[in-house]
Design brief:
FMN, 9% strand, tRNA-dihydrouridine(16/17) synthase [NAD(P)(+)], TIM Barrel, 8-stranded parallel beta barrel, NADP, flavoprotein, alpha/beta
Length: 468
């Protein structure tokens, strides 16, 4: 079953997923330090990658220790995908085709999971890329509702030349609050049908989940995305202290820089449990507005200073839910890296329905009370306007101490207030007239009549000398 190339890269079992704005070089190196045996680059747009050298430089940095590495592309043109693959084949161990992205941007661009219905085109893309480069072509896909169709889909990609398949056990409709549980049954059925190496993706929150998935599905490796973001040491089987792993990441970023938006996103996920407490709003705001590495380090240090005594057992921690830090309690304290647990799709649907009912009830109340103080009926149009006005922020009262004291222009015939910075104590109109008539400047009103006239004289003199 194992391909020769897969054996050469060590038959990796612990895989960091391709994540847009998240699986950059610094993050990959951090994960490799903590148990990851294979990493993917973020998804790269093949069309832009082939045309824009700046895009290639900014989005595909790598290093000697960043191996084994799989580069992922998205696109829908076989020739363009093949050309993009040729540009990276010397710097990676395989090239992946993104057939799993379910986002609306992928739908508009017709790539990712929105190509899974066009099997002829997919076969052409895999075949064109396989013929263009010397490294293997792999695919990352989502499942169909039907296990049988999902198996046929995987077999088609294998027959087209795919050398490794990653199966995310969710359909393209399962995303955001409707993500739900990934189907390992689909993954297991596909594993039994194909002969190429295969990774599973979905339902991984800790190392125990990895081993359960390997045992149940018999895949070659397990890929983690969300679980890896909240705990970059997930494959090491530990839950590190959040500020320690965050500072380690920032040290790597110093050597391999990346956009601040990437750093901010990573730290928000590492500290996600800490920020559920209102007492940490100051640190959350500092992270949201951080502009450089020093700012990001300050966030980590402030959180460390706040929780270090609790972590060392020198102070008692109560998370307001009656949970105490004792040896047999399995609930982790907030400063420890831990999975982000989504509410179920059923709970989300119930929540949205409840909010909709509350909104409808509020509207009904408003409709029943659309009368003014004299009990006259207010039109819907006027009521909407009044609601808009009521939502406007309250304007702060003017500081009477800092307002002008009522002085007016020194020109006796002028009733206008004088300019606050005018050196002649005039309003702007009178000041402009005075400067024009007397060849003056007023820095307060930024009127530069004298300066511009002198400049014009010098320019005219220069022209005259040149003509002579």
């Amino acid at each position: 079953m194992d391909s020769e190339w897969f054996a050469r890269i060590g038959r990796p079992r612990f895989v960091v997923a391709p994540m847009v704005d998240a699986s950059e070089l610094a993050w990959r190196l951090l994960c490799r330090r903590h148990g990851a045996t294979l990493c993917y680059t973020p998804m790269l747009h093949s069309n832009v990658f082939t045309k824009d050298a700046k895009y290639r430089k900014e989005n595909f940095p790598t290093s000697p220790e960043d191996r084994p590495l799989i580069v992922q592309f998205c696109g829908n043109n076989p020739e363009t995908m093949a050309a993009a693959a040729k540009l990276v084949e010397k710097d990676c161990d395989a090239i992946d085709i993104n057939l799993g992205c379910p986002q609306s941007i992928a739908k508009r661009g017709r790539y990712g999971a929105f190509l899974q219905d066009d099997w002829l085109l997919l076969s052409q893309i895999v075949n064109a890329m396989s013929n263009a480069v010397s490294v293997p072509i792999t695919c990352k896909v989502r499942i169909f509702e039907s296990i049988e169709k999902s198996v046929k889909y995987a077999l088609m990609l294998q027959e087209s030349g795919c050398k490794l398949l990653t199966v995310h056990g969710r359909t393209r409709e399962q995303k955001g609050p409707l993500t739900g549980i990934a189907s390992w049954q689909h993954i297991k059925a596909i594993r039994e049908a194909i002969s190429i190496p295969m990774f599973a993706n979905g339902n991984i929150q800790c190392l125990q989940d990895v081993h359960r998935c390997l045992d149940y599905t018999n895949v070659d490796g397990v890929m983690s995305a969300e679980g890896n973001l909240t705990n970059p040491a997930i494959f090491e089987g530990i839950n590190p202290v959040s500020w320690e792993i965050a500072l380690e990441y920032l040290d790597i970023v110093e050597q391999y820089p990346c956009p601040t938006s990437f750093i901010r996103g990573h730290l928000f996920k590492i500290f996600h449990k800490v920020f559920t407490y209102e007492t940490n709003n100051e640190e959350r705001q500092l992270l949201a507005t951080a502009q450089n590495l020093e700012d990001f380090k300050k966030v980590c240090i402030k959180i460390r200073n706040k929780y270090l005594l609790f972590h060392q057992g020198e102070a008692y921690f109560d998370n307001n839910e009656g949970i105490t830090r004792i040896a047999f309690n399995l609930i982790l304290p907030p400063w420890i890296c831990q999975p982000y647990v989504r509410i179920s799709p059923e709970e989300h649907t119930e929540k949205m329905e409840r909010l909709s009912r509350e909104h409808q009830n509020n509207n009904n109340i408003v409709k029943r009370t659309n009368n003014d103080s004299k009990d006259n009926t207010i039109s819907r149009k006027k009521m909407k306007k009044l609601r808009r006005i009521s939502r406007r922020p309250t304007k702060p009262e003017l500081d009477t101490q800092n307002r002008r004291n009522g002085e007016i222009c020194v020109n006796e015939t002028c009733p206008n207030p004088l300019g606050g910075k005018c050196i002649y104590q005039l309003c702007k109109k009178c000041c402009r007239n005075k400067c024009f008539e007397e060849d003056l400047d007023c820095k307060g009103h930024r009127i530069l009549v004298h300066t511009r006239r002198e400049t014009a004289k010098k320019f005219a003199l220069q022209k005259e000398n040149e003509s002579c």
